[in-house]
Amino acid sequence: MTKIDEKLELKLAELVRQTHEAGIPVMVLFEGVTASGKSRLSNELLLALDAKYTHFYATKTPSEEDLRMPFLFPYWKNLPKKGDLTLFFRSWYANLIDYKYHNLKPDIFKDHHKLLSEIKGFEQMLLNDGYRIIKFNVEVKEEKRQEHIQQTKENPLTRWKAQEYENAIPTKIYTEELKHLIKETKDIAPWHTINYTERGQAVNEMYELLIDELEQALKDKKKKEENKKIDGKFSDDFKTDLFEDTEDEMSKSDYKDLLPELQQRMRELQYALYERKIPLILVYEGMDAAGKGGNIKRVRESLDPTGYEVNAISAPTETELSYHYLWRFATQIPRTGHIEIFDRSWYGRVLVERVEGFASTEEWQRAYDEINDFEKALTLEGAIVIKFFLVLDKDEQLKRFEERQDTLEKQWKITDEDWRNREKWDVYLEASKDMIEKTSTDEAPWIIVPANNKKAARIKALRTIIERCEERLWGVKRY
Of 199, 216, 237, 246, which sits with the fewest C-beta atoms within 10 Å of its C-beta? Predict the structure, then answer.
């Protein structure tokens, strides 16, 4: 019988301390049929590592409540922060097999290959951001596996576990599905197969593979830091006519007549969306002082407060910076039937972070595709995603800035940062133009809203939301 090599265990523990200090997030996945040895290997690994920055998450068959959230929501929620390690006992692969075998969300996922595509994008995005994903497929000889199951059945304290085995996806189906998934995803983050027939040999093999992966992760991190560049890549003489239309006509009397009617319709649609379990996501971006807050207020003014939430996005906190930039948004996505409103959003990566140099050149350039994939996943789950970009001209912005500065109750709305941003008007315009052109998709198009007239902007947003919701609910267009 092979003994567990203590030197390998100590070396692995030291490497995990190094990846912790280097800020490298590590994700270790264990897949395999029931009673293959996954739990034993997982426990050996957990015992070898420092519990302060090691976490464990076990995937289970989704409950009815779980199915009200997006497919990858549990994994976004349990992402390790920079420097931590999370062990996933079963993972998004087991989750996909569950969806397929139990025919979950059949009205949405008629083709489960779409979820495989989502998994590939998720892994690639994390790898690009410096995550290390280490995937193990644990196998065992059938004779040994049956021995494990029999021992579990004979022990009164573990008999419940044997009952779980009986309710699991049939071994043959799980094995065939996982074999296909391994083939489809091995080129993104490679798979490692471990045979658990003999404990000591299996544990040592796991340690050796983890050591190789983490040593490479440290080398990759160093190389990435050496090659890091920060450049917004802006034009010397940028011009665009994309934002020239800043005026829409709207009289006070028309506004007074239209607003209550549209707000009442919004409340009715909120209940219809809830009944049909359709999530609605509203994204507001635009120029400073364009009226995003006032626009959002009119949208939600008549809504039932138990069914919506507003996320006013500011600079990321220290905790938020320790995760992938999409983490703080992905964990705030509404469950089915609810409304989430983002006052500024994930587009900060390609706007303020690009302009101010908070993101590297490589980070903001790849963000367009990452955001498109993120929004595509939301719409794939049935969400309605509506994105507004509010525009006003430079003179109107100055007028609003000065009004805020001179009005005591509005002074909190104006900051030194607003004035600094105004000095960078042209580069923000270029960043906004690039954003709209590269992230306006069939699933989630941008709606440019002229905002010199606040009342007209509010009515346009309300009409757009109503039209999109009615079209989804009943296939009709009103405006």
Answer: 237
